[in-house]
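Run log // design_07
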């Protein structure tokens, strides 16, 4: 029986992929039955899966438990700003992933212990150091994978969320500024409903923010 990897139709939605495999009770490298294949029309043979991983925009890597890269796809090396995957593996493995990649090198031990003590995939958010010294924030899924030899590898998917985090932090800062300014700020709809308001304006008018957001600009409550 040929080993396969079942994935969602866009080939990149890891959450759906993980959920599907969990529902079917199969692991990444497990042979699945023809019945499972019939129930999942989106399927790839092992060579196709390897090609998909190689060209995916999301990083995939394999490492030893003690922190040395075994392999990685180009997305990982691009993320960490190395010229190639080969260069990344050689340079990082001189000291290890914890020292070369993690901003907080001690935290990798906590991550690994968490993964080894639980079955299935574990999800983390971590700050990683790039080759040029810059720092990125990533989400990554990590799982311990037992080999036939008895050794254990760590397999992981990693996604750079630095820009998303910057946007979230900017929105949070803007909200703090709006909520604490001494100016009334509000946002309304085309039909005169109040969609949002800051605390200062609500206080001046004698309402709570929640109450204002149920009203129109004409002072009537909106059903």
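design_07 sequence
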């Amino acid at each position: 029986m040929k080993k396969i990897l079942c994935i969602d139709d866009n080939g990149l939605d890891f959450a759906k992929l993980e959920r599907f495999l969990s529902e079917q009770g199969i692991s990444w490298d497990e042979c699945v039955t023809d019945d499972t294949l019939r129930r999942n029309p989106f399927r790839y043979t092992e060579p196709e899966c390897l090609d998909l991983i190689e060209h995916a925009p999301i990083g995939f890597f394999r490492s030893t438990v003690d922190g040395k890269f075994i392999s990685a796809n180009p997305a990982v090396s691009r993320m960490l700003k190395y010229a190639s995957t080969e260069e990344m593996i050689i340079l990082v493995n001189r000291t290890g992933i914890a020292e070369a990649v993690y901003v907080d090198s001690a935290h990798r031990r906590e991550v690994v212990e968490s993964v080894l003590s639980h079955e299935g995939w574990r999800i983390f958010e971590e700050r990683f150091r790039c080759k040029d010294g810059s720092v990125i924030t990533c989400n990554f899924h990590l799982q311990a994978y037992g080999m036939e030899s008895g050794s254990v590898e760590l397999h992981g998917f990693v996604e750079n969320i630095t820009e998303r985090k910057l946007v979230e932090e900017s929105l949070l800062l803007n909200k703090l500024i709006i909520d604490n300014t001494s100016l009334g700020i509000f946002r309304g709809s085309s039909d005169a409903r109040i969609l949002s308001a800051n605390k200062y304006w609500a206080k001046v008018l004698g309402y709570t923010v929640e109450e204002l957001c149920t009203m129109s600009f004409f002072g009537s409550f909106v059903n």
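The first helix runs from residue 14 to 24.
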